[in-house]
Amino acid sequence: MVNYSLALAFPGDFLGYSEEFVAGEGTVEQDGSIFAVALGEKQVDDSGRRVSIKAAKFVRPLAKGDIVYGKIQDLYDTVALIEFQPLNAPSTFPAAESRNAFLRISEITSGYVEKLEDYMRIGDYVRAQVLEVKSLGIYLTMKAPDLGVVKAICSYCRGGMDLKGKDFVCSRCGSIEQRKLPHA
Ligand SMILES: [Zn+2]
After folding, report:
1. Residue 173 CA, ligand 1 centroid: distance in Å
2. d(CA 180, ligand 1 centre) in Å
3. What angle do CA 66, 69, 70 make, to 5 degrees?
4. Model-level pTM?
5. Per-residue model confidence as pLDDT tens digits over 54-97
6. Phi/psi of residue 144, nearest 5 degrees
7. For residue range 99-137, what is the model confidence (pLDDT) as tens digits?
8. Among 3.40.50.620, 3.90.226.10, 3.90.1150.10, 2.40.50.100, what is the CATH number of 8-55?
């Protein structure tokens, strides 16, 4: 498993309000709130003002069963390309031969999936699980109930979206979209 401290923050986690904090490395400010954009440890500097995310260190190569966080880079007909977002140099990321992973359409849910776009969009952050580590790449699954999109990006305006009930609502343009949600 990933070796991390107790203060681990996940992409999309709320870290504080911008009246209180300055958005540092590994974070993003959105409409007055600061969110993590990388998996890592939440840190506030000595001034007590700057909040940042120090990337979690991976202590061994990824293996089947590991939980990972990544960003949807591209969507094809039957597979999604997911990029891991380690903040530090690739040396802290032992699966360095490939920072990309693949999610097949058959690994989204246990039911039939017609279109990947109904479950995730480019730019979203997902929580997924390693299914297989092959020479060609890492294959992920999102079937388990605790896996899914943890942060959604609006497909119309690229704004951040807030989860309201079972829908994501764009904080900028008001667009309403659905994703495969983790509900652990
Ligand atoms: Zn929007």
Report:
1. 4
2. 18
3. 125
4. 0.67
5. 876 655 667 888 877 788 999 999 999 998 754 443 333 443 44
6. -65, 150
7. 688 999 999 998 899 999 999 999 998 888 889 988 778
8. 2.40.50.100
Ligand 1 centre distance from Cα of residue 24 (Å): 24
Residue 53's beta-bridge partner residues? 42
Q: Which two tokens stand for residue 172?
A: 């900028």
Residues of the chain with CATH 2.40.50.140: 67-149
- What's the 161 CA to ligand 1 centre distance in angstroms? 8
User: How close is the Cα of 151 to the center of ligand 1, in Å?
Assistant: 14
The Cα 159–Cα 161 span in angstroms is: 6
Nearest Cα to Cα of residue 2 among 100, 93, 72 = 93
107: its two tokens: 């690994």
Token duo for residue 170: 């764009």
What is the Å distance from ligand 1's center to 129 Cα?
29
Report every protein residue that has its C-beta within 5 angstroms of ion ligand 1: 154, 156-157, 159, 170, 172-173, 175
CATH class of 67-149: mainly beta
Can you count the helices (H) and strands (E) in the chain?
A: 0, 16
Distance in Å, CA 121 to ligand 1 centroid: 13
